Amino acid sequence: MVVSHTKASGSSTLLGPTGTAILGGVQVSLTLLEKSVDGTNIPFVKGVAGAALEVIKIAKAIQSNREECSNLVERSTSLLIVILGSLTGKTEDAIPDHLRRGVERLTHNFYEILAELRIIDKRAHGWRSVLYYIDNGEKLKDCSAKLHWATEEFQVTSKVDSCLKDLERHEELRKGQERLQKGQERLQETIQESQQELIKGQTNMEENIRKEVRDGLSGVREAIKDQSNTQDSSGFVEPPSPCV
C-alpha cells in the first residue's frame, strides 16, 4: 500500500513535506511509491512509473507557480497509484495488448511533460521566475490538462479490459451451462435407454417363463399320453366314463 494515512497539517497546498505528496488531504510517501515500482517485474510498467515519479519530483522542486505544480503532482500521483493498482502483481503475458498500448501512450505523455518541466525548472530561479511566471503557469496548466486526458484515456482502457474480462467470464459461464445441459441430456438419454433395456429384459423374462410353462405342460401331456399307451398295450380296459 502506497498511501500513508497522515493528514496534512492544516495546509491547503497539495505539496507535502520532502519525500511526500498530498493527495486528497492524505500524505503519499514517494519512497513507498518507489518501492512499489521496484516490486514490479514488467519493464514497460517500470518505465511509465519511473517517468511519473520523475515528474512528481521535478514538480515538487520547482520554486515558482506552486499551485500549478501542486495540481500536476496530484494528478501524477493519482495516476501512478492507478497504474500500480491495475498492473502490479501481474505477469507481462497476462497484460492484454490494448492495455499495454495504453501504458506506452502514458509513458510518452509523461516524457513530454518531463521535457516541459525541465525547461520550466531552469526558468523558475532568481529573477527569471518573475519574468517567466505567467508563461510557466500556462505551461504547467497545459501539462496538467495533458495528464488529465491521459488519465481519462487510461481509465477507459482499464475499464475496457475489465469489461472484456467480464465478457470472457460470461462466455465461460455460458459454455459451462451448455456443457451442463448436454450432460443432463446425455444422462436423460442414458436413463431412457436403461429403462427400455429393463422393459425389454422384463418382456424377455416373461416370454421365457411362458415358454418354460408351455414346454412343461407339453412334457406332462406327453408323459400322460405315453402312460396311457403303455396301459392299453398291457390289456388294461379303461372303465367307462360315468354318465352325466
Give a verbal description of the structure.
A hairpin with a 2-residue loop joins strand 2 and strand 3 (26-29). The longest helix is centred in the last third of the chain and has 101 residues, at 133-233. With 244 residues, the chain is mainly alpha-helical. Mean pLDDT is 75; it is low at 1-26. It has helices at residues 30-38, 43-61, 66-87, 97-122, 127-131, 133-233; strands at residues 3-7, 20-23, 26-29. Strands 1-3-2 form a three-stranded antiparallel beta sheet. It is rod-shaped, with a radius of gyration of 45 Å.
Question: How would you summarize what this structure contains?
Answer:
The chain is mainly α and 244 residues long. It has six helices and three strands, in the order E-E-E-H-H-H-H-H-H. Helix content is 75%, strand content 5%.
